[in-house]
Amino acid sequence: MRTFSALTILSVGLLGVAWGFGQDPLALHVDVSLVTLEVEVTDSAGRPVNTLKKEDFQVYENGTLQDVRSFDSVETPYNILLLFDCSPSTEPDWPFLVEAMNRFRQMMRPQDRMELAQFGSGFKVVSEMVQPGGTGH
């Protein structure tokens, strides 16, 4: 009896799969009136360009020019804390860490501020909150 039940369930399952292959695939069509795009623009030196306006962009979908209905530039400043492990075990990596920090600082926007701190045998704030030009706040 168990064999008959298992074969019946298997047969019904296979018929369902075969029927599914004969049907059109499920299609879902959605009309979306607003799509959000995040764009990052850098200059030839790799620094962020933050002065672009809506008129500086053209967006195409399948070759058709789309209206840019809303445009918001990210102008809110970031307050950034760089925290470095300066324990003796990381000393061979210190030149790399300093280079990484300097590159990161070059990528900051004028309105962003950065503070540098270290830990290892203790905690120490190395520099106050400064902007890329070097002015503290």
How does this model look, in words?
The chain has 137 residues and is of the alpha+beta class. The chain has a domain of 52 residues. 26% of the residues lie in helices and 20% in strands. The protein has two helices and five strands; from the N terminus they run αβββαββ. The strands form two sheets. A three-stranded mixed beta sheet has the order 3-4-5, covered by helices on one side. Strands 1-2 form a two-stranded antiparallel ribbon. Strand 1 and strand 2 form a beta hairpin. The protein starts with a helix and ends in a 7-residue tail after the last strand. The N terminus is likely disordered.
Properties at a glance:
alpha+beta, 5 strands, 137 residues, three-stranded mixed β-sheet, elongated
Q: Topology of this structure?
A:
Blueprint: H1 2-22, E1 59-61, E2 64-66, E3 79-85, H2 94-107, E4 113-119, E5 123-130
Parallel strand pairs: 3-4
Antiparallel strand pairs: 1-2, 4-5
Approximate strand percentage: 15-25%
Question: What is the CA-atom radius of gyration, in angstroms?
Answer: 29 Å
The CA-CA distance between the termini, in Å, is: 83 Å
Count of strand segments: 5
Estimated helix fraction = 25-40%
Shape: elongated
Low-confidence stretches: 1-15
The succession of helices and strands, N to C, reads HEEEHEE
